[in-house]
Amino acid sequence: METKCQILVIDSSIAMRKGLQTLLSPLEADFFEASNGQAGLQLLTKHPIDIVITSVDMPQMDGLELCRRVKASEKTREIPVIILSSFDTDIDIDNAIQAGAAAYIEKREARSRLYDTVQKVLSIATAEKPERTIMVVDDSRPIRTLVQKGLMEAGFRVVTAENGQAALDLIRQQRPDLVLSDINMPEMDGFELCEAMHVDPALSTIPFVVMSSMSDRDQMQRIIKYGATDYMIKPFSVDEMVIHIERFLHDHFHLLLKEKDRLDTQRNMILGSIHSLLNVQEVRDPWLGSHADRVSDIAAGMATLAGANKRDIEVVTLGAQLHDIGKIALRDDILFNPQKLSEDDLAIFKQHPRIGSNILEHIPYLPSDILSIVFFHHEQPNGKGYPVGLSADEIPEHTAITSVADRYVRLIEAPPYGRGLPPATAAPLIDAKSGSELCKQAVALFREWFNTQDSASSDPTDNALPA
């Protein structure tokens, strides 16, 4: 049975507490109540609370002080706190953020915002987080030891380095989640380390937090321009450091989740548009739909064997699925002509890659690699392909893979006016075109894929559309 969420609601008004619970009733959570921050802290020591919702103005202990104490304790710092207030000035919001709040909501907006905000904060808090690694860079051994001890006790994995060069070498071997660095160090100082990371695309997204004294304020402002994302003023307590880093990583993790949501939305838009186009293709010519499915499966298998990453495999899969989409614009007497086309009709037929690319370029967020597959899938290494006439080294790898898969499927399937070849007969014909009509590397990859298929000796036309 699924465990219910445990929510602590803190407000000096009974009516307000009950009203907040009513707003959150769809969550079917277990609610705990407290009239002030002090009573709320006591409940936190007795119950496994998942989230705290607190007002600011309360007797004995206000909401901001409660939030600070929750975040200062090792036992409770992971519990998200949402602060409600009657005020919404920049100072009020900044005070809440500085206290460690996960969200700030003005009370008059609670009816419209609270439920969604609680759901989002809970999803972030309960999302599986990998073990977080902090790189500590300082030329002082006592400081490195002190910081390492505090971070490890807080549950972080810690790697240390005595200067920027040693840190850079380690970072390239084991990527940390955050770099915590001093500024003044021998061999390579904090400025040089920050700049080296900032200009390296593989390292530029790693958060870089500076440790320095108040007297180095000018240096801290300058290193922000070098790419540093935050700074901490020495001296600081271990607890302050842990709270600062936890808060920063929480915000960074939140941003990553927002970016993931944005990319998921884009992907769904792309897939929805593609699904609509494929439906049109299937209605216009069912054989084209079957052909595209087979080409897509084989091209994806070849890309997987080549060691392509998830994103590239998806690009090949979708690009191969859409490679002939331009044919939906061809006239019936050209698309369904069983005879050899006239020169004029052949010239029109050879426009289908360009037409397909023009159709797809209007789909928002569609990767340009997919457009390349559609536009160039009839290009040949010998320069005799169309619509441009590229040479071997100009044909993109994803396109070369799709071209080979397309040629093989055309050999083995049963098109509307013919019968396909057995795979064992078709495969050598692919080999024969290596380096002339098909790219050598793609043909070698196809042969590797072909040798893994159990059905290599069977006749695939058994499942093809009838002539």
N-to-C span: 55 Å
Question: At CATH's second level, what is the architecture of the largest domain?
Answer: Orthogonal Bundle
Indicate the overall shape: elongated
How many structural domains are formed by the residues? 3
Tally of helical runs? 19
In percent terms, what proportion of residues is strand?
5-15%
Order of helices and strands: EHEHEHEHEHEHEHEHEHEHHHHHHHHHH
Rg on CA atoms, Å: 31 Å
Could you explain the architecture of this structure?
This protein is of the alpha/beta class and 467 residues long. The chain contains 19 helices and 10 strands. Helix 1 (14-23) links the parallel strand 1 and strand 2.
Structure at a glance:
By secondary structure, this protein is an alpha/beta fold. It is built from 19 helices and 10 strands.
Strand and helix layout:
Elements (H helix, E strand, L loop, with lengths): L5 E5 L3 H10 L6 E5 L2 H10 L4 E5 L7 H10 L8 E5 L4 H10 L3 E4 L3 H17 L6 E5 L3 H13 L3 E5 L2 H10 L4 E5 L7 H9 L9 E6 L3 H10 L3 E5 L3 H47 L1 H20 L4 H12 L10 H4 L7 H7 L2 H9 L7 H9 L20 H16 L10 H10 L7 H12 L16
Parallel strand pairs: 1-2, 1-3, 3-4, 4-5, 6-7, 6-8, 8-9, 9-10
Helix pairs in contact: 2-3, 3-4, 6-10, 7-8, 10-11, 11-12, 11-17, 11-19, 12-16, 12-17, 15-16, 16-17, 17-18, 17-19
